[in-house]
């Protein structure tokens, strides 16, 4: 929408009514962003530029508040070059900051890039939305395991660990411990960082200590040598 090619600086024609907003005020602010009205700064990523407003950026993000109100050279610039963020992720970041309800369907965005950008810019609310999207689209709300959510939970674990999504991390660990026989045989499990594999095994062992009757099932479900090696 408001992300524009440097070769085409015409205002966006996208209607803000097509994008859901969080509230009536958010709808008005979102319209201002999409139309590029009275913008006073452009955020440049490679060949893409996003028209924005310093007051909104500062109000919504501590990162931008420090950049635009402190001694940094960017505080007096009308164009800021950003690094370490993909243009597609930045589009979602800006839509969120301007009051839109972000579309985090994995078919529509790279959720890893969005999470990294939300963490970089200190957008805790967006990180919570990403955590919900991971639970919904990747973990299937931790129901009985299927092929998709087995892969999805294993995809989610490193992200939850890296970005401090504590509740999601605990639920994912608990789910892997409950369904260890299905999860540990998944190729994706062997590709996890060793510290996360160990945490999964430790969580499973803690569950066995609390509920010893699961021990015989464990040895029937998982190769004993493999289990000892993982411990």
Automatic annotation (TrEMBL):
It comes from Capitella teleta (Polychaete worm). Residues 39-106 form the BTB domain. CDD domains: BACK_BTBD8, BTB2_POZ_BTBD8. PANTHER family: GH15728P. This is BTB domain-containing protein.
């Amino acid at each position: 929408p408001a992300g524009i090619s440097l070769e085409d600086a015409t205002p966006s024609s996208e209607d803000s009514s097509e994008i859901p907003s969080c509230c009536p005020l958010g709808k008005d602010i979102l319209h201002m962003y999409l139309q590029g009205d009275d913008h006073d700064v452009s955020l440049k990523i490679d060949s893409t530029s996003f028209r924005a407003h310093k007051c909104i950026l500062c109000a919504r993000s501590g990162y931008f508040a420090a950049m635009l109100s402190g001694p940094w050279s960017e505080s007096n610039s009308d164009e800021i070059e950003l690094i370490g963020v993909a243009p597609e992720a930045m589009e979602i970041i800006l839509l969120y900051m301007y009051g839109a309800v972000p579309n985090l369907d994995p078919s529509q965005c790279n959720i890893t890039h969005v999470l990294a950008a939300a963490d970089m810019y200190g957008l805790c609310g967006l990180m919570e939305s990403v955590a919900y999207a991971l639970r919904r689209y990747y973990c299937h709300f931790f129901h009985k395991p299927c092929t998709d959510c087995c892969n999805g939970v294993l995809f989610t674990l490193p992200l939850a660990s890296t970005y401090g999504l504590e509740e999601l991390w605990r639920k994912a660990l608990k789910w892997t411990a409950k369904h260890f026989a299905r999860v540990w045989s998944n190729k994706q499990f062997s590709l996890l960082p060793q510290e996360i594999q160990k945490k999964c095994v430790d969580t499973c062992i803690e569950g066995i200590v609390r509920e010893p009757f699961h021990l015989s099932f464990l040895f029937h479900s998982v190769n004993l040598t493999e289990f000892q090696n993982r411990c």
